[in-house]
Every structure is written in C-alpha cells, then in structure tokens.
Amino acid sequence: MILTKRILYKPTREAAIILGSMCKASAKLWNVANYEKKNYKELGFEKFPNWYDQKRRLKDNFWFKNLPSQTAQEVLNILEKSWRSFFKLKITGGIENPNPPRFKKKSSKFNIKYLNNGFQVQSDMIRFSIPKQQKQYLKETYQIESM
Predict the structure, then answer these.
(1) Of 10, 41, 85, 117, which has fewest CB within 10 angstroms of its CB?
(2) Residue 17 burial by CB count (10 A; 0-12/13-18/19+): exposed, middle or buried?
(3) Looking at the 3D structure of the chain, how many domains does it have?
(4) Residue 147 CB contacts under 8 Å (≥ 6 apart), including other chains
C-alpha cells in the first residue's frame, strides 16, 4: 500500500505567481486570526476564539477567500494547534517562559496544504483548485489569460 507519492513539481511562471500569491494569502490569514486570538478581549469577544468560531467568522475575509476553503481552514487549524501547544506548555511548565504563536513577517509566505480533493495528479500534470476571487485578482493584476 502506497501512503505517499513524491512528485517533483516545476511550475510555469503563471503557476508560480498563483501559488506564491496563495502562500502570501495564507500568511495574511494567519496574522488576521492570530490578531483576533491575541486581542480577543479588546475586540469584544466573550471568550477566546476557537477554530470553529474563527472559521465561521472569517469565511468572508479577503484572505480567506483567496484560498481554497479547505486550505484556509487548515491554516486556522494549524494556528489553533499552535495556541493549544502554547497553553499546554504554560500549564505544564515544559518551557520556562513559552511565547504565543508569532505573526508572520510582512514579506513572508506560509506553506499551504492541499487536502485530497484540492488537487488532481494526472500523467504529466498537477491540477490545483483555485478560488474564484483568486482567479479574478490574478487576471486583473498579471493579465493571465489561460485559467
């Protein structure tokens, strides 16, 4: 039984632009969600926002819409796991002074995860799903015709 398959992917210029902008959108989404978690009292939330609350609330966010839905949810899930780890370390004392998850730098890109139905592997091609908002933005910004 094969559990993983390794594929060397060499994107075209257009594909590199698309994937790069999606990685940037995932970093921005991380920062938006992390800001909510760090400043939830000042923002007027009754309790610390969990993954489900953020997923529901941020689904209309610009950065969320620039990612496939499952990929955006996975970014929020990774952030949730990071915060859980921080709280666990704080309680158990595993590290003397643990720091909460940091914001991604302005120029940084965050890895994106595609789940099984987010892409298709064909004989010599990989087809990624791209949200409509991302397609429209890229057509206007980079005059990419073939999408």
Answers:
(1) 10
(2) middle
(3) 1
(4) 130, 135, 138, 139
